Structure formats: C-alpha cells, structure tokens
Here is the input.
Amino acid sequence: MIVLEKRPNPSRAWAFATPVLAVIATMIAGGLLFAALGKDPVLAIRTIFWDPLFGDFASYTRPQLLIKAGPLILIAVGLSFGFRAGIWNIGAEGQYILGALTGAAVGLAFYPTESRLVFPLMVAAGALGGIAWALIPALLKIRFGTNEILVSLMLVYVATNLLAYAALGPLQNPEGMGFPGSRNLSQWLAAANLELFPGTGIHWGVIAAGLAVIVAHVLLARHVFGFAVRLAGQSPRAAAFAGVSPSRLVLACMAMSGGLAGAAGLFEVTGPAGQISIDFNVGYGFTAIIVAFLGRLHPVGILLAGLLMALTYIGGEMAQLQLSLPAAAIQLFQGMLLFFLLAMDVLTQFRLRWKGAPVVPAPAAAAAPQEAS
Amino acid sequence: MKLNRRTLLASGASAATLATLGLPVRAQTEPLKVGFIYVGPIGDGGWTFQHDLGRLAVEEHFGDAVETIYQESVPEGADAERAITQMVLAGADLIFTTSFGFMDATANVAAQFPDVKFEHATGYKTADNLAVYDARFYEGRAVIGHIAGKMTKTNKIGYIGSFPIPEVIQGINSSFIHARKANPDVEMVVIWAYTWFDPAKEADAAQAMIEQGVDVILQHTDSTAPQAAAQAAGNVFTFGQASDMEAFKPVPRISSIIDNWAPYYIGRVQAAIDGTWATHSFWGGIADGEVLIGEITEAVPAEVKAEAEALRDQIAAGTYHPFTGPLNKQDGTPWLAEGQTATDEELRGLNFYVEGIAGEIPA
Here is the structure.
C-alpha cells in the first residue's frame, strides 16, 4: 500500500516538474475524454495545442494568443503578491469591471476630443477604479476583521450590477437606438487601444503585462517589499518581528492586485471588447486565479501559464469548430488542468512510500525548520 | 496632427491581415459551408436550441449540398470577433450570428471579408454582405397575453424581463395590452433578470412574483426554471418561451411561444446557393411561420382557446395588428390614435411602457 510521507522540505525538482506533468496528465485524460466522445484524441490534442501555434491559420491565431493572455497575465501578476502573503483577493473580476467602467467614463466625458492625453488619462482612471474597489475589502479587513475572500467575491456581483446599470444608463450610447452598451471606444482614435505592431496582436495591455512581469520579478527578488511579502506568507510571526505591518501589507497587496485588474479591464474595453456592454466581463478575473497558481505565483511562471491558458482557449475554440466538440468538453479539459496541478502538488510536499517497507525516520531532517526553504 | 501613429498602424494592420490570410479558394462543386455562432449551449432548451433546430433543418433539407458548422456558448464581446473570424478561416461561405451582442463583432468581420455572407439576428447594422433578421415575437405575446388575462384569478400577472431593450419592451406592452383587453382588472408585475438564461435567477424572479400573488407568469428568459417554480407552487400558470417546453404540459405550461427559424434559414441558404442572396432587414412573424403558438392545453377553457386561436389567425392574416390605437403611453400622453397602428420603426426603438403598466423601465 502506498502512503504519503511529508517531505522535510518541499522538493525543488518536483516544484518545476509538476506543472509539466499536470499538462501531460491533462492531455492523456483529455484524450480519453475526446475518444469517449467519438473523436480522434490525437487530432483533438493536436488541434488544441499545435494548430494555434503552427497550423494553417497561425498568422491569425498567434496574435490572438497574446490578446487573450495579456489580461490574464496582468491580473495574475497582481494577485500573486497577495496570494504569497496569505491575502486572498478573489474579486479581481469585480476590480476588472470597475477599472473598465471608471476608465471608460473618464474617457467618454471628453468625447469626441481628439487628444493624445485621453488614453493615458483613461488608463490612470481605470487603475484607480480597480484600486478603489479592492480597497473596500482591504479596509473592512483591517478595521473590522472581515474576511477578504467573502467581501471581495461578493463585490464581484455588485460590480456586475453596476456594469448593467452603466450600460443601460449613464454610459449608454446616445446614438445606439435605445440598445444597451456604450459608444465603441475602439472606433474613437483618442481612446482606442489598437494593435501597435501590425499582425502581432500586441496592444498596450500586452505591453503592460510584460512590464508587470519584469517589475514583479525585480520586486520579489530584490526589493524589501518582496521580502516582506514572502516572509509574511511563510511566517506571519517572523514578519511581525521583522517590522512588517500586517495592515500595510494588506493595503499594498490589495491595491496592487486591484490596480492591475482595473488596468486590464481598461485595456480590454478600449481594445478587443471595444465597448461597455452588459456582458463585458468574461471571467478573466477568475481565470487569472488559476493562472497565478499554475505559474507557482512566480512572475515568469505566470507568464508561461497565461500563454498556456490562452492556448487552451484558442485551441479549444478551434477544436469545437473543426471537430464539433461540445463547449462543455473543452471547459472540462481546462478544469482538468487545474485539478491535475493541485493533485501533483502533493508530490512537492510529500513523497510516496510503500507501507511495509522499513521506514526509518530521520529525526534531524524532520526537525529542520520549515522556513529554511 | 490628426494622422498619428496609431491611425497609421491601424490601417496597415488590417491591410496586412487581409493580405496574409486570404481566403480558401474553393471549387464550385463543393458544398456550401454554413456557419452558426450561438450565444448559449445547444442544449439550453430555449433560444440556442431553437436556432440549432433551424441548422439541423437546413442539413436535412439540402443534404450533401451544404455542410454546417457551429460554435456554441460564444461570449459576446472580444471573443465573438475571433470566433467569427475563425469560422471564416475554416471556410464558411454564409454565417449566421444568433445574438444581439454579436452585432459589432459581426460588422467588423464582415467588413474584413467582403466575399463571405453574414446574417445577424436581432440587430440593426447592415452592409452589402451583412443582412439582419428578427422575429415579431410581440405577435405571439399578444396571443399568450390574452390567455393570461383570462386565466388569472388574482388579477395579477407577472413578466420576467431579460434586458430592457426594444424587443423585450414590445413583448411586455403587447402582453399587457391584450391581457387588459381580456380582463380590465388585470395588473402586471415586471421583474428584470438581466440575463437570457440563468435558471437560478429566473427561479428567484418567479418565486418573488408568486409571493406577491401573481398566478400567471410570462417569461422572456429561456430556461424552464420558472415553469418548475410554478409547478412547485401549484395554481400558477406559465407559457413556454422560445421552445415549446412541453415537459411542463398540461399545467403549469398552458401554451407557448415558439421561435421557428427553419423556414428563414432554408430560404437564405437556398438564395446563397442560387446566387440570389442579397442583404436585407427581415422581420418575420406568425404569417411567415417564424413565430408559432404551441398547443393550448386542456387547462384553458374551450372558449378562451378559441378566442386565442382567432387572435392568432387574425394577426397571421394581417387583419389585426397587436399595436392598434387608441393607445396611450405610460404617462398618459397619446401614442396611437383610434385605428392607427405602430410603424416598424417605432417598434424597433420602443423604449416606453403603455398606459396601465406600473413601474419604470430601468435606464
């Protein structure tokens, strides 16, 4: 019988190997699922993972990968700081919506001005909108000890109702014949977030995501803030002794994740989405949580995880279209990825042992402090 | 300077896209490839389910002469544009995008691929290769509104609204006008669900209505959750929406308003095959077979059933228009004079309730 034995220190080798193993396991289990649906599993897996990158229409799908991955990476990088420090902002979806709303509102106030200042102003307003929305659960936590998971999550539902209100009321397109939705921002040059280099899919949001990865990496590796975040996550008591204020840390992490989520919303509403509409949000804020963990809360990992997630979206759509796979099978496939990652995670913390084989406890190793890792 | 870098790159980008992608060259003998973009899952039992029945009818009617492809649960917004483009790249010659929220995405893709034909449901933007089509659901609402007015015992009927857009406001007004004609004491409660399909929200809305004393529920949302809530409550009647919802016969579902897209889809595919396809703005109703009234069950008294069927036949024959004056707006100002009927243009932009409905349209 196999038993799990806690490792004295999390294994570094397994920490790198598990994401790769999770992807392989997902391919195998997904292949079985597709075979059970009567589709060629090899063709399905190839359509999902290969065709978007190197298929017949890769010149269209490759840029689409960046468009899809951009907001996921931007939001996930922001979330990763809080998650490392044990501060759980689950409401990035709401902050994303608020960023789009405040940014679009500020921009539309200047319609139809053609000034280069409009777009930067909108980005700033979008980030501030996201920050403000994220600070609500942060302040409630500090002042009243509320649970930030619940408060931030519930504020998502408030945000979706604000979105519906704005799309039908204050931000509604006056020339839209009474239909819900704002003016099309991507068709107003002063506010449009267009492709910067032809055929690459790179818009300002993708640039911002790249910058966020670099800045986050520097912060975590070299800056005292990164040290405080890591310390607070590993040992809150040690962090307190080291002079890290828990309240300030909550404020900083929530503001950071809210600001990046808000900016992501603004880049999306001015670019790919184009307008504030009732169905503007499509779950980037929630998917980014998966991306953050898939990337091990590490900026470079998040970059790769965001691209991988985008690949399963784009490839999944292609598989739906070309092989008539049901949409639910694709969602199941994406869910498997997270499931296997969490399952494989066990291997970094525990090792497998055959029960019955003589297990000699190693007192020295067992007594080693966890913080040493 | 007006022509900034963004402008320049934007125009360069679209030109580059067109040049690199091109379009698959196809021989004349190949089947016409027809694509469908759905907003919900094909198993939603309502809106998307009915569009997919239309697709299957096209397959059955044309056999090997057409090939159909579809993509379900496509989110409205940025993802829609990619889904439609990928469908073009997959070789589709004619694409139906079946939700209002796909309007801008369809228009953008249509502008990029002038050789592909597009049809957008329920919108208003057209181009040489982009047609729009819609159904006069308000005609069917008049018939079920009449039944609702006759069947209520509490004189309170309810309407679960999806989004406050003209199509839904037409439905509310049409139902109410005919419920009042059938029963001058009737009142209507409107609850906005802000969704086309969300069983949990729809069940909540139905429950809230039942608690207020509503005993006939009309819905403009696509799930069967309100039917289930009515069944649990007992003594509450409902109508199938989009599809027949025959599982809830004979009560609580006493009739239904069915979207039937098959005749339209078959006609348009035929036109594309014949080379006679041209853009248009089509609005079909009961007369075109696009809106059907489902079986009126035995829970409805025979005379009410006969009245409802007569109303349906008058609308189909064109001898009666559901919006015929005298009608006042909610605030009491006159809208339509005696005998005057609403124009299509007025209906397409309808944004007010008629006199007698309580509450405000959210905006």
Observations:
- Chain A has 15 helices and two strands.
- Residues 70-324 of chain A form one domain.
